[in-house]
Amino acid sequence: MTYNIIYKKSVHRDLRNLSKPEAQHILDLIDKELSQQPESNPPLKGQFAGLRRYRVGDYRVIYALLGADVVVLRIGHRKDVYRGGI
């Protein structure tokens, strides 16, 4: 089953903070891997319970599964992505 990828508006801001090659690499992997098996990634705990993370090197993609949709909420470096709210 192929999932639809939906990006929250704040993701575009997150991507502007990355270099163009890094941003393109992350987006390519999201389209390739996350759209196929998003349930295989570990769920988060604590204040982010119900969300999942996808690891791309030192970067993390925080997303939620909603039926046949994958809603990407945040993309950022692992040291910063969990700070603040989603």
Compact description:
The protein is an alpha+beta fold. It has two helices and four strands; from the N terminus they run βααβββ.
CATH topology: YaeB-like fold
Cα distance, first to last residue? 27 Å
- How many β-strands, per DSSP? 4
- The helicity comes to 25-40%
The CATH homology group name: RelE-like
Global Rg: 12 Å
CATH class: Alpha Beta
Class based on secondary structure composition and strand pairing: alpha+beta
Q: What kind of sheet is the major sheet?
A: 4 strands, mixed
Structure characterization notes:
It is globular and about 30 Å long. The chain has helices at residues 9-16, 20-34; strands at 4-7, 52-56, 59-66, 69-77. Strand 2 and strand 3 (59-66) form a beta hairpin. It is built from two helices and four strands, in the order βααβββ. Helix content is 27%, strand content 30%. It has a single domain, classed as YaeB-like fold (2-Layer Sandwich). A four-stranded mixed sheet has the order 1-4-3-2. With 86 residues, the chain is α+β, with helices and mostly antiparallel strands. The mean pLDDT is 93.
